[in-house]
Design goal:
This protein is an all-beta fold and 79 residues long. Helix content is 0%, strand content 59%. The radius of gyration is 12 Å and the shape is globular.
């Protein structure tokens, strides 16, 4: 399920760590080995996806890179 959101996701991991991104939120997703974000960084998101396996992801790049919701805090914005 895909829904539109408007907000910021802040990576809730220590800044010494990175969180890898995925190519989709769907259950057949693949981890992008060369794409990651640093802990404590913040990113704009416009979409929240829930795969058939129940895992939730936020899109943080226009070319559809997704971060697992478990590793971020979502902050809604009213822009």
């Amino acid at each position: 399920m895909l829904e539109n959101v408007n907000g910021i996701v802040k990576v809730n991991q220590d800044e010494r760590y990175v969180v890898f991104l995925f190519d989709t939120y769907e259950a057949n997703r693949k981890m992008l080995q060369d794409k990651f974000v640093k802990g404590q960084s913040s990113w704009y998101t416009d979409a929240k996806g829930t795969g058939d396996d129940g895992k939730v992801f936020y899109r943080i790049a226009q070319d559809s890179e997704w971060i697992e919701a478990e590793y971020v805090d979502f902050i809604e914005t009213n822009d």
